[in-house]
Amino acid sequence: MSLSLMQRCIEECGRCHDLCLQAIAHCLRKGGRHAEPSHITTLLDCAEMCATSVNVMLRESPRHRRTCELCAEVCDACAKSCAGFHDDDEMRRCEAECHRCAELCREMSRNG
Amino acid sequence: MSLSLMQRCIEECGRCHDLCLQAIAHCLRKGGRHAEPSHITTLLDCAEMCATSVNVMLRESPRHRRTCELCAEVCDACAKSCAGFHDDDEMRRCEAECHRCAELCREMSRNG
Amino acid sequence: MSLSLMQRCIEECGRCHDLCLQAIAHCLRKGGRHAEPSHITTLLDCAEMCATSVNVMLRESPRHRRTCELCAEVCDACAKSCAGFHDDDEMRRCEAECHRCAELCREMSRNG
Amino acid sequence: MSLSLMQRCIEECGRCHDLCLQAIAHCLRKGGRHAEPSHITTLLDCAEMCATSVNVMLRESPRHRRTCELCAEVCDACAKSCAGFHDDDEMRRCEAECHRCAELCREMSRNG
User: Fold this and answer.
1) D60 neighbourhood in chain A, CB within 8 Å
2) D58–A14: do the CB atoms touch at under 8 Å?
């Protein structure tokens, strides 16, 4: 296992968690389509799964590949949900972050 | 410290956490005033502080009085936020639960 | 989706979370083999994955089948870890609870 | 409220959370006095309160001063617990981080 891959994954999941929580505050303020249940729920799921993934890695648990695998899936779903708001800079940033986090979590789940 | 008071407080905080998360799903579905940022944020804060309070008690930590004290405050704020929706049964249930949880957390913070 | 299966799963995951956290306090007190890193880490992973699983279900998220599937795996690992302490009542209770929770989470991941 | 103070506090709490979880893995490996219940419990409390504090700030909740105030207290307790291991570099790093986080959280609770 490469320590630097894991270190990068911990940092990426941390950033993704933070961005998703900030995105929720933004989306609730905007209201309308931004505050639809499925979008907010997906952002909450993504923030929570990123936090769980970070904690499992920091605990040096042998289960980190499986939690990273699921985290990648949830990040994919969140990127897709954010992609529905092309004219919103904050949603585009969140989409890009979720993509990066999904990529790294997938790599961790295979080679971490 | 009375074990039964702590046991009741753990259960009450668990119930309050669950009801607040269910209330969020309900409020996002209803939309409009139900989905205002301050209301959803308060419900999220309450669910999280209840979970933290439960975990600190289950760890038998000497800090449980302080976390229960803050949890009572957050539950009070959440009860007040829910009280703004008198014609909504789910909000009334959540308000009542937050009141009960605040009372028990306050008792724990003083005598637990 | 059967609501009652989900309701039972939420309750079971909540109970399993609580029992795992109490088991950690117990194991740290006992020390020695009880406090080995792999055992405590597994108990912490199980408590956290149960909490995540509960939250995803309470949010009525479409991802609950996937989180329940992973939760079942982590509960299996925790039951196995607790099974190494046959002469300890608290470990036996935790093992039994993890088994029940794993069963219900598996059912949710297939039919929930 | 100064955004940069809050941003720094979010980052500091995130670092403190991560370091405390890594410290737990380290302490359980070392065993003996490092794995005493009160020390591990304090590290777990600190990691959890830091996470709660981060989440409340990221949600832009008006309750962030109160959660930061309690977070500072828990960080103080954790720094004190780590200070009992002067010959251990990882404990010294954790102690220093908890001090920094406590300072910043206290500043947030007064001026944030």
Assistant:
1) 25
2) no
Contacts of C41 in chain D (CB under 8 A): 25, 28
Residue of B nearest to A37 (CA): B28
Size of interface A-B (CB pairs under 8 A): 20
3-class DSSP string for chain C: CCHHHHHHHHHHHHHHHHHHHHHHHHHHHHCHHHHCHHHHHHHHHHHHHHHHHHHHHHCCCCCHHHHHHHHHHHHHHHHHHHCCCCCCHHHHHHHHHHHHHHHHHHHHHHHC
Only one residue has tokens 């668990």, namely B14
SS3 at position B40: helix
Q: Considering the entire predicted model, what is its pTM?
A: 0.97
Q: pLDDT band at residue D112, thresholds of 50, 70 and 90?
A: confident
Instruction: Summarize pLDDT for A51-103 with one digit per residue, the tens.
Output: 999 999 999 999 999 999 999 999 999 999 999 998 999 999 999 999 999 99
Q: Which of A55, A63, A73 sits opposite C66 (nearest CB)?
A: A73
Q: How far, in whole angstroms, is CA A84 from its chain's centroid?
A: 16
Cα–Cα distance, D30 to D23 (Å, whole number): 10
User: pLDDT digits over B31-74, tens only?
Assistant: 999 999 999 999 999 999 999 999 999 999 999 999 999 999 99
Q: What tens digit of pLDDT does each residue of B2-24 get?
A: 569 999 999 999 999 999 999 99
